[in-house]
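Reopening this one. Same input as before:
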Amino acid sequence: MKQSIVVMKFGGTSLRDAERVKNAAQRIVSSKSQGNRVVVVVSAPGDMTDELLKRAQSIAEDPDGRELDILLATGEQVSIALMCMAIKNFGVEAISLTGPQAGIQTDDVHTKARIRTVKPKKLLSELNKGRIVVVAGFQGLNTRDDIVTLGRGGSDLTAVALAAALKAEICEIYTDVAGVFTTDPRLESEAQKIDQISYDEMLELAGSGSQIMQARSIEVAKKFGVKIHVRSSMELMKKGTIIANAVKDLEAPVVTGVSYEKNEAKISISGVPDRPGVAAAIFGALAQDAINIDMIIQSAAENAENDISFTVARGDLKRALLSLESIRIKLGAKKIESEDRVAKISIVGVGMRGHSGVAAKMFTILARAGVNIEMISTSEIKISVVVEESDGLKTLRLLHKAFGLGKKR
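Same output, byte for byte:
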């Protein structure tokens, strides 16, 4: 009988110290003993990535992207070596592979590269020898044969991409929480674990601030039908949350979860000429510098001019402003203003498709609480608002309660 391939990913908090590495290794060996062919993806231990980034910024305020990738990729290489040592201590054969050795090939964008393809020839060869293969997450090889990193949460993307390429039975994501919750349980004590969630809902939650999984990893999972199980690395027997093409109960709630993203910044360009091609020039300049745009609002034209506001990740604000200044001059726009103390709150749920009045309820709740909404964005299953950062947590808790997402559910 053909053995199933299982991909197991462990985040940095699950590898923070020797005891946690040994605990993870024991769980990996247990999966192997059940007859599975096991591929493990690991992040850098603890806060090592943040520490390496701080070290780089102590040398250069804006470090060179190529050299930064070389530095940041070392964190995961620490983890693969230590994990293999721990697994071998249980008397089981294991081998560590970097992202490039595992066949992960990317584009040429440094610090947030996108995976182009996975060629797991070496990885499969090692599995066929009966070994557990431990792969460094967060990294790959670009077309210039340089090591690149995949952006925040990139180890999730590595795990899902490998699961897709290997046609794994399941991709298990081990983290420091018990699964996906209606909101971050560290921010709202009444948050409740969700047993099953659809790709679409998880993608919207991840893309709007949920820290559980990287949004790009969910995109890949949905495209290739990778079943994901998000679960606790500490509670061995408890089931977590299944992310798949979920079939909702007839009485499922309209709203599944509320997300909170405080690492946002808002940019406004005023006095923009109202003519074709202006938006393309503005957002084309940002795209050229690999700066992702989230919410966009354009005012109605007045005196042949309008204003354009949009949000970017707070860490991209400085680069975005530099990119936009030359475009502002070229277009003849009046001024650029920015605000880095904003938060984005989103409500998400496939049930919203068939229910009217969800937006009205949301806005009424915030109006009564005196929360000013600066920007609004909607999709079929999501409504997002940007508010002042000082109102962020209050907004999250109000909406979580109002849509009945607490433990009483």
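So the earlier flakiness isn't reproducible anymore. For the record, DSSP finds eleven helices and 18 strands in the chain.
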